[in-house]
Design goal:
The complex is a heterodimer.
Chain A lengths: L4 H6 L2 E3 L6 E3 L2 H7 L5 H4 L5 E3 L4 E3 L9 H5 L5 E3 L7 E3 L4
Antiparallel strand pairs in A: 1-6, 2-5, 3-4
Chain B lengths: L3 E7 L3 H12 L4 E4 L14 E3 H5 L15 E9 L4 E7 L10 E3 L2 H14 L3 E3 L4 E7 L2 E7 L5 E9 L6 H5 L11 E10 L2 H8 L6 E8 L7 E7 L3 E9 H6 L4 H10 L4 H4 L3 E11 L10 E2 L2 E3 L15 H21 L4 H13 L1 H8 L3 H7 L2 H18 L6 H13 L3 H16 L1
The structure holds flavin-adenine dinucleotide.
The site of flavin-adenine dinucleotide has 39 residues of chain B, from α1, β11, β15 and α9.
Chain lengths: 93, 431
């Protein structure tokens, strides 16, 4: 019944661009200044995963909500809209 | 595209389409630019669309628009872990013309609405991102899009680009929103047969129910959950301020699961199949967060201008009215061919004189006060539940003893004065 975030994401249609619209400005900031890495917790699509020394950004599953841009305490995410027509495509609500 | 339009509208949500529709209907040359594959493809809403403000744009739209159900009952649930206090209002009148509000699915609704603007003569281009406003001598004269040769010019640019409001931000109309000024909301559309919905919610095919859920549904954080009936699906969602989500270290999709599994909620969605999962921000800064609304050649509308009444979950209607007021302002400006900030300022005045400005002002401190005083959501809702539980459990305790126990439970922690203060403060911000 779509319990996990993976199951939920599976129900969403994405028209992925080949290029990421999200970019970590400086992975070092995540490593040295941000022990909590809140983006890995509050992102509703689990786009961000900490890999020990750098932040993995799974932009393909992004809902383009903007939370990470606003919620990153270090203003460390360069956030743009995907190219026109690309990214998430909601079919219902 | 070296063509010039009277008006360029960025974003085909309720604000942008209302503006484009009204301008086109009055003979202006309008370009409506949308980044999604189609209008609605990027848009999310719990689902309550208000008749009044939509009707001011398209009279009797309900005869044609893709709507789900007219809402005849609004329920409010105050949840604890295994109990709830509820209240509701049901009116059969709301199920008849002219109706009060409807549940809708935005991907369908927005597409239809934009097609009506096109019928009036607006030019719609989808799959196109506006990257920035073109500014000459301090005046907005057009937009730069991500299409090849994608500069387009107009007398006025209307920013209806939604909550992220990147364009107004880059014009310096506001700073980046703070995490307290936006709510992060996630929801699911869950398929359920019409007949089952009707039985569970005690309605017929042409009646719908909205349920707003407070308390344990956000684990005490400032926010709400909701459950709305579509024709043959349910919308269920939950959101809190982004700051609340961060502070409580909550994963939004786990919070949504918590809501779906809650023993008071689960029976309503039992057997329903999730069809789609959606995340979106809601601007909830209110009156104090409304940015600069006009500049030379530019007007900001809808979510991009923080025009949402979070307490009453009214956003789409404010978006529509702001789009319409922007159109009326532009038509006036057209008469004198003057699109300066001074002329367009008519829009700002109109917004503040309308129900938008008045309602935002009425609740201007609400979000802030509730955010700073978590006891309202964290303590009082459970206390309310325990009070009712104590009072209605027949266990041989005399009623007067129960009453004094209840009063003690409310005043125990903060003292009588603390509770009185809290009540007074809550009343002040919503009065
Ligand atoms: C979960 C949730 C539940 C809600 N529930 C309700 C409710 O029950 N009732 C209610 O009235 N309101 C509700 N709201 C609020 C309501 O959805 C918004 O207030 C309303 O959609 C605002 O309309 P808008 O046109 O300003 O913005 P949007 O609807 O966000 O439209 C903005 C449009 O601009 C486009 N766009 C953005 N940037 C660009 C660009 N650079 N170039 C081109 N196009 C661009 C977007 O793709 C989008 O189509 C809810 C919101 C959410 C998230």
């Amino acid at each position: 019944m779509a319990k996990t975030v993976e199951e939920k994401q599976y129900l969403v249609r994405f028209r992925c661009d080949t290029k990421s619209h999200l970019e970590i400005k400086d992975h070092n900031v995540c490593m040295t200044q941000c022990p909590d890495k809140d983006c890995t917790i509050f992102c509703p699509a689990e786009v961000y995963k900490w890999e020990g020394d750098r932040m993995f950004v799974g932009y393909e599953g992004c809902h383009e909500c903007g939370s990470c841009r606003i919620g990153c305490g270090f203003d460390n995410i360069k956030w743009e809209y995907p190219k026109g027509g690309h990214g998430i495509v909601f079919r219902l609500a | 595209m070296p063509e010039k339009f009277d008006v360029i509208v960025v974003g085909a949500g309720p604000a942008g389409t209302s503006c484009a529709y009204t301008c086109a209907k009055n003979g202006l040359k309008v370009l409506l630019i949308e980044r999604g594959e189609f209008p609605g493809a990027k848009n999310v809403m719990g689902g309550i669309l208000y008749r009044k403000q939509m009707e001011e744009i398209i009279p009797e739209f309900w005869k044609e628009a893709p709507l789900e159900r007219p809402v005849v009952e609004q329920r409010f649930w105050f949840l604890d872990k295994e109990s709830m206090v509820t209240t509701s209002y049901k009116a059969l009148e709301w199920g008849k013309e002219p109706f009060n509000n409807f549940t809708v699915l935005r991907a369908k609704f927005d597409k239809w609405f934009a097609s009506k603007a096109v019928e009036q003569g607006a030019v719609l281009i989808n799959e196109t991102v506006v990257l920035e406003c073109i500014v000459e001598d301090g005046k907005v004269v057009g937009v730069r899009t991500d299409r090849p040769d994608g500069d387009v010019y107009a007398d006025v640019v209307v920013l209806a680009d939604g909550v992220n409001s990147l364009l107004a931000k880059s014009l310096g109309f506001h700073k980046e929103w703070k995490p307290e000024e936006v709510a992060l909301t996630v929801m699911e559309v869950m398929k359920l047969p019409k007949k089952v919905i009707n039985e569970r919610f005690n309605v017929n095919d042409d009646q719908g129910v909205s349920v707003e859920i407070f308390g344990d549904s956000t684990k005490g954080a400032l926010g709400t959950a909701f459950l709305y009936t579509n024709k043959d699906s349910l919308n269920i969602g939950v959101g809190t301020t982004l700051s609340g989500m961060i502070k409580k270290k909550m994963k939004p999709y786990e919070l949504l699961e918590y809501v779906k599994e809650h023993p008071m909620i689960k029976p309503y969605i039992d057997g329903a199949e999730t069809e789609e999962y959606l995340a979106h921000l809601i601007p909830e800064g209110g009156y104090n967060s409304v940015p600069k609304l006009v500049g030379d050649g530019v007007i900001v509308t809808g979510d991009a201008a923080q025009l949402v009444n979070a307490i009453h979950r009214e956003g789409s209607n404010m978006a529509m009215t702001s789009g319409r007021l922007a159109a009326e302002t532009i038509m006036r400006a057209k008469e004198s061919e003057d699109y300066s900030e001074r002329t367009l300022d008519y829009y700002r005045t109109a917004i503040y004189d309308s129900f938008i400005g008045k309602d935002l002002k009425k609740y201007k401190d609400a979000t802030h006060v509730f955010e700073e005083n978590p006891q309202y959501f964290e303590q009082y809702i459970p206390l309310m539940n325990r009070a009712m539980g104590t009072f209605f459990t027949v266990d041989g305790t005399p009623k007067r003893e129960k009453q004094s126990k209840i009063i003690k439970s409310f005043t125990g922690k903060n003292g009588r004065l603390g509770v009185a203060k809290d009540l007074y403060r809550a009343w002040r911000v919503v009065k």
